[in-house]
Amino acid sequence: xxxxxxxxxxxxxxxxxxxxxxxASKAFYAGLFGWRAEDTEPVEETEGYVMFKLKGRNVAGxxxxxxxxxxxxxxxxxxxxxxxxxxxxxxxxxxxxxxGPIDVVDxxxxxxxxxxxxxxxxxxxxxxxxxxxxxxxxGALNWNELQTRDVEGAKAFCSAVFGWRPDDQDxxxxxxxxxNVGDSAIAGAMTTPSGVPDEVPAFWLNYFSVEDCDASxxxxxxxxxxxxxxxxxxxxxxxxAVVADPHGATFGVIAGEPPEE
Length: 261
Hints:
Layout: E1 12-19, H1 22-33, E2 36-39, H2 43-46, E3 50-54, E4 57-64, E5 73-79, H3 83-92, E6 96-104, E7 108-115, E8 119-126, E9 141-148, H4 151-162, E10 165-171, E11 174-181, E12 184-191, E13 203-209, H5 213-222, E14 226-227, E15 232-234, E16 238-244, E17 250-256
Parallel strand pairs: 1-4, 5-8, 9-12, 13-17
Antiparallel strand pairs: 1-5, 2-3, 3-4, 6-7, 7-8, 9-13, 10-11, 11-12, 14-16, 15-16, 16-17
């Protein structure tokens, strides 16, 4: 189902971008995905937060980088019915809470949580803003993937905090972990590829659906972005590639369906 009005707790429900140049980012993602940017109100409280829309529906967000310590990046948020309870589980599981829990005007309550094996993850308790309203179609979020050097540590942490059930699968000769909520695969994890520098910590990679992976890769370059190698194709998954926008925020494009059990 591509249209969503709610998410089961434990399901990734939203992604947003931290950008050093919001106007340039608006132009890039409009050219790549056809997104229309809409400022959120009241501006003095939302600090310049932008909603990206597709077909008039919210599909992603963007906030301006607030200081030089931040890097351009895409962030994943997991839905919860109680951010404060989730934060308590984070500390019990050996993680930390860099931000929050805090209310975001009347949109929801959130926190950023961190763990060496599971990276930095947003946790979102919806009030008015329930998450992405379109998923799994061209221009919308398709999949959330953790790349980590400690998959076992990530399994333990995410199971304790979000209730995820890990299930190792063979994808193209490599072990890929599906995280499940109930009977649904909602995210994945894999060992960080060997070409990634050692100093890069565990991180979440967001994939967006496209009609044609190769055409989208060419468009990324035309718009000033860059590619991380050639496209890959896996039976039952689709054709996909990892790319970056002009500021270096990394994401994936995929012509195919989300993994299933």
